[in-house]
Write a structure and sequence with these properties.
- This protein has one domain (33-157): Up-down Bundle (Four Helix Bundle (Hemerythrin (Met), subunit A)).
- Helices cover 87% and strands 0% of the residues.
- The protein contains four helices and no strands.
- Helix 1 (2-67) packs antiparallel against helix 4 and helix 2 (74-98) runs antiparallel to helix 3.
- It starts with a helix and ends with a helix.
- It is mainly alpha-helical.
- The chain is rod-shaped, with a radius of gyration of 26 Å.
């Protein structure tokens, strides 16, 4: 009888300890997943903003070089254009690595980013219409926000 009482006390204690262990393990995993997802979102946003900023500056330098702005020497404008295109290329590659091409929204953003980058690269030889540039930037920003919001919602739901 005495041994039975001991088992009646030990079994619930062991079961509750095991249950508490698995619950805390699950909570730690989900917190780590949330932290990683938040970091991904922050880095994604930063890379997208830097990509757009570098592309914008490259186009400004092209305009300066083509209009012959006397405040900036043509060689300097060309050099600055190349620097900004180089930065833009770096951020484009980072975005390509961050995004999942099998996800429809990600795939659509990749399409806009690569198309926009190509147009900026070739811009010195092919002036873009301001509306085309505006459309690309608007679509890239819109998709970037949608992707960020979807990722945040997935964190909140997990």
């Amino acid at each position: 009888m005495n041994i039975l009482n001991v088992f009646m006390v030990i079994i619930p204690v062991l079961l509750s300890s095991a249950f508490a262990y698995y619950v805390s393990k699950f909570q730690v995993k989900s917190q780590l997943s949330s932290i990683n997802k938040q970091k991904w979102i922050d880095e994604f946003r930063e890379n997208l903003a830097c990509f757009l900023s570098s592309a914008d500056m490259a186009m400004v330098m092209t305009d300066i070089a083509l209009t012959g702005d006397r405040m900036v020497e043509p060689g300097t404008a060309r050099k600055l254009f190349q620097e900004h295109v180089s930065k833009m290329s770096l951020y484009e590659e980072r975005l390509l690595l961050y995004l999942d091409s099998e996800n429809n929204k990600h795939h659509e953003l990749l399409k806009y980013v690569t198309s926009f980058a190509y147009e900026v690269y070739t811009r010195p030889n092919n002036l873009l219409e301001k509306e085309t540039v505006k459309d690309h930037v608007v679509n890239i920003r819109k998709l970037g926000r949608e992707i960020s919001n979807l990722e945040w919602k997935s964190i909140l739901n997990s």
